[in-house]
Amino acid sequence: MSMFQRVTENDHKAIAAIIGDEERVLFAETIHEEYSHDELSSEHIYPDIVVRVQSSEEVSKVMAYASEHHIAVTPRGAGTGLVGASVAVEHGIMIDMTLMNHILELDEDNLTLTVEPGVLLMEIAAYVEERGFLYPPDPGEKSATIGGNISTNAGGMRAVKYGVTRDYVRGLEVVLADGTILHLGGKVVKNSSGYDLKDMIVGSEGTLAIVTKAILKLMPLPRKRVSLLIPFPTLAQAIGTVPRIIRSKAIPTAIEFMERDVILDSEQYLGRKFPDNQADAYLLLQFDGNTMEEIASYYDETAQICLEQGAIDILIADTEERNEPVWKSRGAFLEAIKSSTSAMDEVDVVVPRNRVHEFVEFAHALPKEIGARIKLFGHAGDGNLHVYVLRDKLSDEEWQKVLDLAMEKMYAKARALDGQVSGEHGIGLAKRSYLKQSLPPEQIALMQRVKKAFDPQGILNPHKVCED
Amino acid sequence: MSMFQRVTENDHKAIAAIIGDEERVLFAETIHEEYSHDELSSEHIYPDIVVRVQSSEEVSKVMAYASEHHIAVTPRGAGTGLVGASVAVEHGIMIDMTLMNHILELDEDNLTLTVEPGVLLMEIAAYVEERGFLYPPDPGEKSATIGGNISTNAGGMRAVKYGVTRDYVRGLEVVLADGTILHLGGKVVKNSSGYDLKDMIVGSEGTLAIVTKAILKLMPLPRKRVSLLIPFPTLAQAIGTVPRIIRSKAIPTAIEFMERDVILDSEQYLGRKFPDNQADAYLLLQFDGNTMEEIASYYDETAQICLEQGAIDILIADTEERNEPVWKSRGAFLEAIKSSTSAMDEVDVVVPRNRVHEFVEFAHALPKEIGARIKLFGHAGDGNLHVYVLRDKLSDEEWQKVLDLAMEKMYAKARALDGQVSGEHGIGLAKRSYLKQSLPPEQIALMQRVKKAFDPQGILNPHKVCED
């Protein structure tokens, strides 16, 4: 029996009155199927009502109503999540943030961009790069909203040099469960003024508060970038080279690894050739800087190290025309793998970067053990791996068995390597049990008390992250 | 009446038995005066007992004992704090962390340094720079412990380019109020595995947990650095130039501002000349990079902008021999000002960097209004100002009145400029009322609920930050 109230026709009327615009309030059968799931989760649950908000004030009023009537609320961005965090497990109210999609201010003195949460990652990139700035976090899924990125503390390709989303969130406007609007942080560079509520909300997957505005930190756009695509005879050699690159004190923006089969999937999916597909494994590196000389001074030594470690060749992409397609292919890996099978699920573990090869070796041996194909790629430079278990022709029952076994084994391995359950995709609904296994009960209990501190009634996105 | 138990002779025996080394347990009259205060606070309160711990296990056992007997606990590092955060308001147990002062591991593959909390900032700098790495946070007080820096989220000079302490804390070992030892984060670069307890503890001034180990993120040490000391006719011109430098997309490591009177204080205090003391105001910039050409490409335009804005000269320090004394003088400002008066108190506000000039103008007009001298300097590049009110010959009563008036006025001004109470020194005991004035009651209440989630009995460093 749920502890939450369902949304009645009366509630529908009351919420419609709050919003004052019928077209932005979807009830019962007018709710589109897409609102019942995210990108990968096998959970399909419909909310009772969807409210397409346009302002913080609307979010505040809806939350106050939900709080008063004890109705569960699930915030949702573009629905590109992979762990079911935006699935309305308790039905109730879904707050669709995608109409709050305005870029509000570029402040060139303070190097900040103020945005609403529904702005897409690719929109931010286009807007700031045109004006000579960089928003460094660069997850593969460019059609995710910035609100979603903040909610999962998304990482992306450039974390090696620039860090993750958290490092670029200067300030947040949030709505608490009871409708209170708070402004946390701001345009200031430093802040030691009481507890860091802002960073607690970053990565909390909509369970502690709803982000309604964000002040992002920008950097000047590096004037040049160069990518190196480096084929290796084996993946072990490719990945084994990464700690040596780091030890040499080069700082690539990105160090990705990939295997031929994923490249072939991507060629087929995009209908265009990758620059090379002859080798078993590749490292893809990017360097940035203000002059080609400066960048060359970084990558010369790196190239030398790769050759010493057995690299077959060094393919240099030093113009935007050559750079762009390589990274576009890389960005399509997830979709490409998805299109090659009937269903899939993933792990998104992160391990210390000098233990990536141990995890990859382990994952390579898994298919035999579990009886299903596995594909993987990932961020070798920051230890974040994306491993996909493919369903192909397995029956429902077989698939569940394979998946349980694969997940259990991979998360156990990650723990053994001092890794964490999720590098950037979050916990949501799908990974809760693995989070619970990976952390001591005292830590889970502390997280549950924090949840209660923010949301005493537990109405915000229930059953996610650390809740049962 | 206090809700806490005082430490009895019986407790003393029990705690001594836990530690098993009499010399590390100080009781009653054996407690040195230094344990009764920090660097600036006017509060002088003795703890009942001081325990000089040597391991996380000892901290855990002492906390379990304190928790069971409801005794207040105050952790203390080097005592260089400026807001009374390490003053044992409720007497009780003081845990002195300074013997936990070992550098445990440099991991060159993962670019991390694992340290105990009692290691001093200058020890970390010396250790890593000798090995070709940089720990970017660079507060002026080099004899602070890293534990203290983590507890206040210290910022320092290089925040313009590199950010603050929080950005370099990858993992923490902490002891909770009940003695539970938790490991938060780790060597991993990305992490989206549940709520971000680690960042909540950073900056919490010993009120949520005691830090017993830290995994710090390092960077490769830039091979070269160049400082520019730039005299201006007026401080307004100097500070007004900063947003223009930022707009030009140069990224100095540091942008400090200073006035002649503080430079003269510093010359007298250190007994050596600053490179120049003829102008009313100065900007001090630093750039770093791997080659002099690369660095010159950054600062050439900056120098041009400064000259256009009326700079009198550009003094370039491009060798370590010239660099070091300038920054040493800068690092001595606080001590130099302190030595020029009988007592002082400070504000450590942070404002958006394009509003620094407004705050400085305001502070310049204050002495007339309040009847006391004021000195200031600060981080123009990140908007963090250190403003000191000097007591000189004021009576106790006059001093309290002047201080109350000065503080009230300056914090009100900071709020009006969208600033925050503390950029890097924290709230502790001394700034609680100003934090309370600057934030909505709902935010203070949320912080209090978070405190309770971490420390249900409230025994950890009571009356600090958000508590009454």
Provide an overview of this structure.
Two copies of one chain form a homodimer. With 468 residues, chain A is an alpha+beta fold. The first copy, chain A, has four domains: 9-98, Uridine Diphospho-n-acetylenolpyruvylglucosamine Reductase, domain 2 (2-Layer Sandwich); 103-220, 2-Layer Sandwich (Uridine Diphospho-n-acetylenolpyruvylglucosamine Reductase, domain 3); 224-334, Alpha-Beta Plaits, CATH 3.30.70.2190; 341-441, Alpha-Beta Plaits (2-Layer Sandwich). In chain A, 36% of the residues lie in helices and 20% in strands. The first copy, chain A, has 15 helices and 18 strands. A seven-stranded antiparallel beta sheet of chain A has the order 15-12-14-13-17-18-16. In chain A, strands 5-6-10-8-9 form a five-stranded antiparallel beta sheet. In chain A, helix 7 (235-247) packs across helix 9, helix 7 (235-247) runs antiparallel to helix 12 (356-370) and helix 12 (356-370) runs antiparallel to helix 13. The radius of gyration of chain A is 22 Å and the shape is globular. Chain A starts with 8 loop residues before the first helix and ends in a 14-residue tail after the last helix. The mean pLDDT of chain A is 95. At the A-B interface, helix 6, strand 11, helix 7, helix 9 and helix 15 of A face helix 6, strand 11, helix 7, helix 9 and helix 15 of B.
